[in-house]
Amino acid sequence: xxxxxxxxxxxxxxxxxxxxxxxxxxxxxxxxxxxxxxxxxxxxxxxxxxxxxxxxxxxxxxxxxxxxxxxxxxxxxxxxxxxxxxxxxxxxxxxxxxxxxxxxxxxxxxxxxxxxxxxxxxxxxxxxxxxxxxxxxxxxxxxxxxxxxxxxxxx
Length: 155
Description:
Helix content is 26%, strand content 23%. By secondary structure, the chain is of the alpha+beta class. It has a single domain, classed as Cytidine Deaminase, domain 2, CATH 3.40.140.10.
């Protein structure tokens, strides 16, 4: 089974995935990133058709900031706690150099996405994109975190 699907550009995406990625790009541009200058935007498509966006929010006290993925997931689950998360589109760009390849989520975001995937018992498909070039698609968060920690370890 292939776990990573590559698209050479956004033009190869379905209309629905293209639209979701465009919403993530719009959100990326609203990021508050005065320290890293690395802007990240995310857009989550819920099973009810609603799209929830998020972007990274930095703070001079670095651990107090929050990544785009978690901003969007927490907002989605806060407003729509019973609705399945189907797809997350994530895009990034650095203000000082062109980002021509996708970057994947940090470990904390991977763990949070996995928690919601396990809870909803449905896979969360993820699209990754920079500001040009390839788009990467993975079928679920377990692909990103194969040796995951879950609630079974707490019992």
